[in-house]
Amino acid sequence: MDKKYNLECPSFEMFLKNNEKIERSEKSRDSALDFAHPVDAGIIRVLDSPMVNKAFAGLVDLTVDAQYGLIFSTGLRIDDQESEIGDIIRHCAKTLEINVPYTVISSSITGLNAMTVGTDEFVYIAVSSLLKNIFENDEVCFVIGHECGHIALGHVLYHTVVSTMSSFSQLIPLVGPAVYQLISWPLKAWSRRSEISADRAGLLCCGDIYTACRTLLRLEAGFEAVENFDVDTYIQSTSDSLRHSQIGYLQELFADHPILAKRMEALRVFANSEKYYRLTGKRPFAGTELYTDEELNRRTEQIVSVI
Fold first, then answer.
1. Mean pLDDT throughout 175-204?
2. In a domain? residue 46
3. What pTM, to 2 d.p., does this model score?
4. Which are the contacts of 278, defined by CB distance < 8 A and separation ≥ 6?
5. 102, 43 contact by CB (below 8 A)
6. Whose CA is closest to 31, among 152, 203, 148?
7. CA–CA separation, 217 vs 238, rounded Å?
8. What is the pLDDT of residues 215-271, one digit of tens each?
9. Which of 37, 41, 146, 262 could form a disulfide bond with 33, CB atoms 3.0-4.6 angstroms apart?
C-alpha cells in the first residue's frame, strides 16, 4: 500500500515526507494581501518573517500531529483526484496563486464544515464528508476558496498557534482560561478580520456574491433549505436582535468569527467595490456606483467592529 494512503497514523515527520512543500513567492503573498481587510494585512506583514515563523513552526508541527494527525492520516485524499471536488480545489489554488493544498475528506469533521491547519511550509485542509452531498458545486467552491484564502494570506500558522494557546490554557485550572481570555481579546479581534479576508477569497474563487451569501446561510442552516431566505431581512433582523441583547453583544467580543450577518454584509460591500472589479477584471453594470478603496475599508470596519 502506498504510504500516503496508509490508514495507520504515522508520525507527523513521516506524514510530511509524502507531501509537497508549499512555497509562496513574495509577489503571490502581496497579491493576496491586496484583497485582505487592512488590519489583517497589516498584522500579517508584521508577523510574516522567517524569525517569527521559525519560532512558531515547531510548536505548530507538534500540535497538528497531536490534534489532527489521525484526521489527515485516515481521511481520503481528494486534491489529486480527477473529480468535481478535485477540480474545485485546483481552481481555487490557481485563482489565489498557491500550490494545490493537501486536502482530505473526513467524517471526523463535524457538520457542514472545513478546516485548515499547519505552517507555511506544510498546510492541510480537511473537509466534512457531508459537504459535497449537501452543497452545490459553486457553494463548495466558496468554502474551499475561503480555506485556500487562509493559506494565501498567511493565516494558517498564526491561527494554529492561537488554537494551541487555547488548548494549553485548559491545562491550568481556573487561572489558565482566565489568562487566555485576557490575552485572546486582541487575537480574536484580528481573527474576525482575517475571516473577512478569507470570505473575500471565497468570493473571488466562486465569482458570485449570491452564491457566497447562500453558502454562508447554508453553513448556518444546515439541512434546512435556504433558497427562500432573504439576505436583507436576515441581516436587518440580526442587527435588531443584537441591539437588544447586551450579553450576546459581549459574547461577540470573544468570538473568533464575525457573526454570519456581518460576514454577509461585509462581503456584499466588497462585491460592490472598485477593488473587487479591479481584482477580477469584471466590468460593472453601467451606472453602478462602486465603493472606493477608502470607502470599502471604512464601511467594512464599521460592520465588523464590536465596540
1. 79
2. yes
3. 0.84
4. none
5. no
6. 152
7. 13
8. 998 887 766 777 778 888 888 888 878 777 666 666 777 788 899 999 999 999 999
9. 41
